[in-house]
Design brief:
The radius of gyration is 17 Å and the shape is globular. The chain is about 30% helix and about 15% strand. The structure holds fructose -6-phosphate (F6R).
Length: about 240
Amino acid sequence: MKIIVTKNYDDMSRKVANIIGAQVILKPESILGLATGSTPIGAYKELIASYNNGDLDFSKISTVNLDEYKGLTRDNDQSYYYFMNENLFKHVNIDISKTNVPDGTQTDAKQECENYNNIISNLGSIDMQLLGLGNNGHIGFNEPSDEFKTSTFCVDLAQSTIDSNARFFESIDDVPKQAYTMGIGNIMSASKVLVAVSGEAKADILKAVLTGPVTPQVPASILQFHPDVTFVVDEAAYSKM
Ligand code: F6R
């Protein structure tokens, strides 16, 4: 495990983008696993800037996102499909047909999980998976639980996740209660994992993830077992270490 401690959010974002950018340069046909949420927005801005400078070419890149709210249509501005378009895809030369986000409108959960697992396995292995860290230790939407899930599943979101994500919705009642998410097994199968963590609010959970026991009650703790994981954290997130 590598831990890179950065000064602040902007410094973290530049370093995350530099690592992803290096991956894109070294392997132009990379399969990138992507995350949403507030943490990666700065890194996506940096990637767009590098594309505009002529340093990055996304034309051969494929992407697969971690998760999507169940019940939100792709044109809903809170859907993760919408997020990815607004924050990255529409600003770079990625082939949109090579991007993948679970279909939140699919009501048949078994079918959608099977579809998404097929998409992931047909792509081959994910070269680099970007993750944020939930306040409760979740990665993707793998909430604290009694077991690690191997593949894509439909999850009942934890109340703490609903509360935390309410900031993006008009009212807490609008926050979806379920989501489709890659399982821990999908995430652990990525060749490289890159975890971005920012802010003092994540300091306690980051310490538990890095130094605590590996347990499905702190889902990200499983990353201690990943052979090639890099945490890029800012000083505030690292303050309890
Ligand atoms: C997003 C995702 C989540 C977030 C996590 C942190 O696709 O899978 O695990 O990475 O909830 O969210 P932020 O970055 O908003 O603190």
